[in-house]
Specification:
The complex is a heterodimer.
Chain A (H helix, E strand, L loop, with lengths): L12 H14 L14 H10 L4 H13 L8 H8 L6 H11 L3 H6 L23 H6 L7
Helix pairs in contact in A: 2-5, 3-5
Chain B lengths: L7 E7 L5 E7 L5 E5 L3 E3 L2 H11 L25 E7 L12 E5 L15 E6 L4 H10 L9 H8 L3 E8 L8 E9 L5 E6 L4 H21 L3 E5 L36 E3 L14 H17 L7
Parallel strand pairs in B: 4-12
Antiparallel strand pairs in B: 1-2, 2-3, 5-8, 5-11, 6-7, 7-8, 9-10
The chains are: A mainly alpha, B alpha+beta.
């Protein structure tokens, strides 16, 4: 869950509702692959929180989606064809991809352990800097001024 | 040494003797300050350096500081890239480890049989991570929204590897950094304006790189190609705009980085490049910075002669 409280939100209740619908349309959940959609509670909270870095562009994306009929009775297929690939949607879609594909459940579904792959160990003993031995033994690679 | 962070230089000031007397800057609190000094060394790169120089207007230097040649802000060079990625059937495991690996400079030098001068470096890229694959896929239309998203993603993830070509852009005076007549930053300092178009020569390099790379990728087993040129999201390194040279009419700084016009003003960044090379510029900038500071040290007794 995000630490963001409602009064800190960049988005109104209505905007959040629209955005929630939109991200679920972009990446829906999949039973076949055992993954949540981008409208999953945790992922959506990450999207809301991460939107702060580029909120003006995200608002533009929401506005464009609304202008195309999101939230109305426009058929989903028609709505998707109008929105998908439109330049106004690019920052928002990038944000959704960034947040969705760093979700631990999604990474696990791809066969990736949700951590840096190297070194082979995971928890290094405190004060064990032996990984740097090779670097220190190499000596200086620059000359004195 | 004292490092002052969150500061922004407004201009370099000049004394009656024609030497730089220090810099006027806004501190972290937005308060205008003056820092006097005997030597000013600029390290603001291909946009920041000409911006400050052009903003440093005085009676002695009405066209901007160190600009008697008229070349401050001229000849802006970038690095247009082409990206040619192959999609392979088998998992590549390429997202583990360093992104770049082998380079090829087979087409780096001018080739008489080609219709452009100079050339480029191919940098092989091992593969893309989880997020990068998604971004590539959705923005090239290979991964759709909706129900087909997950299957399409899994056809691309861990199956992309290829090359990027970093092209040696050449200096052309119409590519410039100037001061925007209207836009100012938060401190009221005129903003830089970049004017740039890819030259015919660079475009031919890009086209050639895109034409030849698939030979290797297909031979390695690629079944599909993802091509982007110029690569929008990378490679636009900032060079020239305060070029180095021995002739004061054709360059801004001399052969050891000192301004021809202002004898205690030095530049140690990418703006002093005269060609761009088909490689990333940082190590060359570092080398030039070391070289110029060595020169300052060696010439200390007659630095301003």
């Amino acid at each position: 869950m995000s630490d963001t409280i409602a009064t800190d939100s960049l988005f109104s209740v209505e905007e959040r509702k629209v955005l929630h619908e939109l991200v679920g349309m972009i990446v829906p959940s999949s039973v076949t692959h055992s993954v949540p959609g981008a409208d999953d509670e945790i992922i959506f909270a990450d999207i809301l929180d991460s939107a702060r870095a580029n909120d003006a562009q995200i608002h533009k994306g929401i506005a464009h989606a609304l202008s195309c009929g999101l939230g109305s009775d426009v058929p989903l297929k028609q709505l998707q064809s109008e929105l998908e690939g439109h330049p106004a949607m690019t920052p928002l879609v990038s944000l959704v991809m960034q947040c969705y594909y760093r979700d631990e459940r999604v990474m696990v579904s791809l066969g990736i352990e949700p951590r840096a792959p190297f070194p082979n160990g995971f928890e290094l003993p405190q004060d064990d800097w032996s990984m740097l031995d090779a670097v220190q033994n190499r000596g200086k690679i620059w000359r004195d001024a | 040494m004292e490092l002052r962070t969150w500061c922004r230089v407004k201009e370099i000031n000049v004394g009656e003797d024609g030497l730089a007397s220090g810099v006027t800057y806004f501190d972290a609190g937005g308060v205008e300050q003056f820092q006097p000094d005997n030597v000013v060394i600029m390290a603001c790169n291909g946009v920041g350096t000409p911006r400050i120089l052009l903003n440093s207007v005085s009676e002695q230097f009405p066209g901007g500081l160190a600009n008697s040649s008229g070349l401050v802000g001229k000849n802006l060079m970038l690095h247009p890239y082409a990206s040619i990625q192959g999609v392979f059937d088998e998992p590549l495991d390429g997202y583990r480890g360093p992104h770049d690996s082998i380079w090829s400079q087979e087409f780096y030098e001018t080739g008489k049989e080609r219709d452009f001068v100079r050339g480029f470096t191919y940098e092989t890229t091992r593969g893309r991570g989880v997020v990068a694959t998604a971004l590539t896929g959705v923005h090239t239309g290979r991964i759709p929204w909706g129900a087909g998203h997950h299957d399409a993603y899994r056809k691309l993830f861990n199956r992309i590897a290829g090359v990027v070509a970093i092209c040696e852009d050449l200096p052309e005076e119409h590519n410039t950094v100037t001061l925007d007549p209207n836009i100012k930053d938060a401190h009221g300092i005129p903003a830089p304006r970049m004017t740039y178009s890819i030259s015919d020569n660079s475009q031919k390099m890009l086209d050639f790189a895109v034409a030849r790379a698939p030979e290797t990728l297909r031979a390695a087993g690629a079944t599909d190609l993802i091509i982007e040129q110029p690569l929008a999201g990378g490679g636009w390194h900032l060079m020239d705009t305060a070029r180095m040279g021995t002739d004061p009419q054709k360059s801004v700084v001399n052969e050891w980085g000192r301004s021809h016009d202002v004898k205690n003003l030095f530049v140690v960044d990418g703006s002093i490049f005269v060609t761009s090379a088909g490689v990333n510029p940082t190590r060359t900038i570092q080398t030039l910075a070391l070289y110029i500071t060595d020169q300052i040290k060696k010439r200390l007794t007659h630095l301003f002669d």
